[in-house]
C-alpha cells in the first residue's frame, strides 16, 4: 500500500544569480518499506526530506504536482493542519542530536512535552509513555536519563532519545536524515537495528537519507540515487553493487575496500549529461 | 630506524576529582617512510595522542621521540615544526575565513623562515593539485575537498618528514575522499613522508597504512599489520568486534 506519493517535486531558492534548483522534478512513492536516498552533499537528498514536511524556509520554495499522504495532498493543507501532520503522521530524525534536543530542558521534560502536544492525558501517563519509548530504544536506566540534560548524554544516547521522542505520537512515516553519521561505527549498528525493529514492528514507512552507499545497501529495501537534484537511478538495495548508472558505479568504485587493496582509488569522472538527463520515476 | 617513538604515554585532562585519563600507557613506534593508523571509537584517545605529540595537550608523561630526539612538556621548537606537521579533520574550521589561500600559505612559509615565498606558494598549490587560479580565493570560495588540499599544502610548507593526519577525509564525500587519499599517496611517494593517520574508518586506514593500533578507553589494545586487518585475524576481542561492525557484507 502506498503511504506517500510525491509527484514532480521541485525545491527552488532565488539567488542573485537567478533561481537555484536544489531538487528538480522528482517523483517517487513510499509504501511500508525502507527507502534509501543516497547522493553526495548538494545532491538534494536532505532538501527532499524537508520538502515533504514543508520545512523549507523562505525564500526557498517547494513546488510539486502532488505530495500525497495516504491520498491527502499535503500541499493544500493550511499551516495549522500541517503542524499536526508533522510528528503525528510523519516524523523526522536529524543528523546530530546535539542540535535537535533542547539544551536547557531535561530529557524527561522534553519527552513529556512531546506526548502532551499530541495526546490528552495526565503527566503520569505521559511519563509512563516516555519510559516505554525509552525501553523501545534500549535505554534501561530510565530514571537517570529522564532527569538528565542533553549534554550529559553521549551521541549514541542522544540519537536514541531523539528516536524515542519521534515515536511517541506513533507516526506512519519516519524520515531519518543521516541519523548515524555523527556516531561511531559500533553505535551506528545499534541505532540502525533499533530503527529497523521499530519500522518492522509498527509497519511504518522509512525514508533513510544517507551518503553512505554500503550502509544503505545493507539496511534498505529500495534505493534512489540522486545527482544534482534529480533521481539518476532506482534499484533494489540488495543489488546496489550491480548498479548500472556511471555515477553510482563511480561512487561505489571510489570507496576503499579492505578485501581489494590497490594503490590508487578510482576518481569519479563527472559527466554533464548526468545532470541534464530527465529524472527517473521512482513510483511503484 | 624509527621516526616516531611513543613509549608509555599517558595524557590527562583536569586534575583531582575531575581528572580524566585520556590516554593510558600507550606505546608504539613508526619507522621512517611507514604509514601508521590509529583507530578506535570517539573518546578512545586516538586524536589525543596526536595532540600530545604536537604539544596541543599539555599534560602528558612518558616518552615521545622524533627521529631520536626526545620531546618534553608542551613547548616545541622551530625545528620540531619543520619535521612534524598536522592536518585536521574539519577543513571548514581549520582555515582562517578572512585570509586568502595566498595569505595562509605565505604566512606559514614566512614563519618557517623561507625567502622565496612567491615561488614556493605556486609550487605548493601545484603539488596539491590546485594550481595558481585558486591562489587569491577565500576559504568560502572553495569546496570541502579544495580546502583540505589547502590545509595539506600548509602542512607541507615547512617540508616536514612526518604528517599527522587527524581524520583527514571524514568530513568529505566519498568521491572527494578518493581524490584526497590519492593525493596523500602521491605526496608520500614524492617526499618520502611518514604518516600517522587517525580514523574511525577501517577501510580508509586499511587503504593507506602498513600497520595500525586499535585503541579503546585510552589504551592501545592491539597493534597489527594491515594484512591481519584484511584477513580478519584480529586477536583482541574488541578489535575483532570493531572490524565486524565496520565491514559490510
From TrEMBL, chain A:
GO annotation, biological process: peptide transport; transmembrane transport
Membrane topology: Peripheral membrane protein
UniProt KW keywords: ATP-binding, Cell membrane, Membrane, Nucleotide-binding, Transport
GO cellular component: plasma membrane
Main location: membrane
CDD domains for this protein: ABC_NikE_OppD_transporters
GO MF entry, a single one: ATP hydrolysis activity
Matches recorded under SMART domains: AAA
Gene3D superfamilies: P-loop containing nucleotide triphosphate hydrolases (3.40.50.300)
Compartments reported by the entry: Cell inner membrane
Protein family per UniProt: Belongs to the ABC transporter superfamily.
Name under which the protein is recorded: ABC transporter ATP-binding protein
Species name: Litoreibacter roseus
From TrEMBL, chain B:
Keyword Ribonucleoprotein among UniProt keywords: no
GO MF: ATP binding; ATP hydrolysis activity
CDD domains: ABC_NikE_OppD_transporters
Record domain ABC transporter: where: 6-242
EC number: 7.4.2.10
Location relative to the cell: Cell inner membrane; Membrane
InterPro entries named among the record's database cross-references: AAA+_ATPase, ABC_transp_ATP-bind, ABC_transporter-like_ATP-bd, ABC_transporter-like_CS, P-loop_NTPase
GO CC entries: plasma membrane
Subunit and interaction comment: The complex is composed of two ATP-binding proteins (GsiA), two transmembrane proteins (GsiC and GsiD) and a solute-binding protein (GsiB).
Name recorded for this polypeptide: Glutathione import ATP-binding protein GsiA
Organism, as annotated: Litoreibacter roseus
Amino acid at each position: 500500500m502506498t503511504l506517500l506519493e510525491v509527484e514532480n517535486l521541485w525545491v527552488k531558492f532565488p539567488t542573485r544569480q537567478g533561481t537555484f534548483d536544489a531538487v528538480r522534478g522528482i517523483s517517487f512513492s513510499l509504501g511500508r518499506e525502507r527507502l534509501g536516498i543516497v547522493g553526495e552533499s548538494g545532491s538534494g537528498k536532505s532538501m527532499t526530506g524537508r520538502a515533504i514536511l514543508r520545512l523549507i524556509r523562505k525564500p526557498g520554495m517547494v513546488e510539486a504536482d502532488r505530495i500525497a499522504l495516504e491520498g491527502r495532498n499535503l500541499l493544500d493543507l493550511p499551516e495549522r493542519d500541517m503542524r499536526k501532520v508533522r510528528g503525528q503522521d510523519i516524523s523526522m530524525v536529524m543528523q546530530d542530536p546535539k542540535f535537535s534536543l533542547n539544551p536547557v530542558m531535561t530529557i524527561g521534560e522534553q519527552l513529556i512535552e512531546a506526548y502532551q502536544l499530541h495526546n490528552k492525558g495526565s503527566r503520569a501517563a505521559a511519563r509512563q509513555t516516555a519510559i516505554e519509548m525509552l525501553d523501545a530504544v534500549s535505554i534501561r536506566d530510565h530514571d537517570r536519563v529522564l532527569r538528565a540534560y542533553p549534554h550529559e548524554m553521549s551521541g549514541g544516547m542522544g540519537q536514541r532519545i531523539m528516536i524515542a521522542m519521534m515515536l511517541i505520537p506513533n507516526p506512519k512515516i519516519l524520515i531519518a536524515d543521516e541519523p548515524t553519521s555523527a556516531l561511531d561505527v559500533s553505535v551506528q549498528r545499534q541505532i540502525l537495528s533499533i530503527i529497523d525493529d521499530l519500522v518492522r514492528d509498527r509497519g511504518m514507512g522509512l525514508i533513510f537519507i544517507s551518503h553512505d552507499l554500503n550502509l544503505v545497501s545493507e539496511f534498505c529495501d529500495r534505493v534512489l540515487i540522486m545527482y544534482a537534484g534529480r533521481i539518476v537511478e532506482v534499484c533494489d538495495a540488495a543489488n546496489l553493487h550491480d548498479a548500472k548508472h556511471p555515477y553510482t558505479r563511480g561512487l561505489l568504485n571510489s570507496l576503499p575496500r579492505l578485501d581489494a587493496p590497490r594503490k590508487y582509488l578510482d576518481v569519479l569522472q563527472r559527466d554533464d549529461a548526468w545532470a541534464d538527463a530527465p529524472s527517473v520515476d521512482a513510483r511503484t | 630506524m624509527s621516526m616516531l617513538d611513543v613509549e608509555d604515554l599517558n595524557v590527562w585532562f583536569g586534575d583531582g576529582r575531575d581528572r580524566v585519563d585520556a590516554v593510558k600507557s600507550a606505546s608504539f613506534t613508526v619507522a621512517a617512510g611507514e604509514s601508521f593508523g590509529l583507530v578506535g571509537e570517539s573518546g578512545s584517545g586516538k586524536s589525543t595522542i596526536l595532540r600530545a605529540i604536537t604539544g596541543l595537550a599539555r599534560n602528558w608523561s612518558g616518552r615521545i621521540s622524533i627521529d631520536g630526539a626526545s620531546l618534553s612538556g608542551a613547548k616545541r621548537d622551530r625545528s620540531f615544526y619543520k619535521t612534524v606537521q598536522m592536518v585536521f579533520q574539519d577543513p571548514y574550521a581549520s582555515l582562517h575565513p578572512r585570509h586568502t589561500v595566498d595569505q595562509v600559505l605565505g604566512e606559514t612559509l614566512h614563519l618557517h623562515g623561507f625567502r622565496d615565498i612567491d615561488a614556493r606558494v605556486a609550487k605548493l598549490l601545484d603539488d596539491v593539485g590546485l594550481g595558481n587560479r585558486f591562489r587569491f580565493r577565500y576559504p568560502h570560495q572553495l569546496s570541502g575537498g579544495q580546502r583540505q588540499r589547502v590545509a595539506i599544502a600548509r602542512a607541507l610548507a615547512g617540508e616536514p618528514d612526518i604528517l599527522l593526519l587527524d581524520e583527514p577525509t571524514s568530513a568529505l564525500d566519498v568521491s572527494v575522499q578518493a581524490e584526497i587519499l590519492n593525493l596523500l599517496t602521491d605526496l608520500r611517494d614524492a617526499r618520502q613522508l611518514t604518516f600517522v593517520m587517525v580514523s574511525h574508518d577501517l577501510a580508509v586506514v586499511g587503504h593507506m597504512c602498513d600497520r595500525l593500533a586499535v585503541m579503546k578507553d585510552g589504551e592501545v589494545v592491539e597493534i597489527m599489520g594491515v594484512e591481519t586487518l584484511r584477513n580478519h585475524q584480529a586477536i583482541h576481542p574488541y578489535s575483532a568486534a570493531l572490524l565486524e561492525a565496520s565491514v559490510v557484507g
